[in-house]
Amino acid sequence: MRAKAVFYHAGCPICVNAEQTVLGALDRDRFNIEVVHLGTSKDRVAEAEKLGVASVPALVLDGQPFHINFGASLNDLK
Amino acid sequence: MRAKAVFYHAGCPICVNAEQTVLGALDRDRFNIEVVHLGTSKDRVAEAEKLGVASVPALVLDGQPFHINFGASLNDLK
Question: What's the pTM?
Answer without folding.
Answer: 0.95
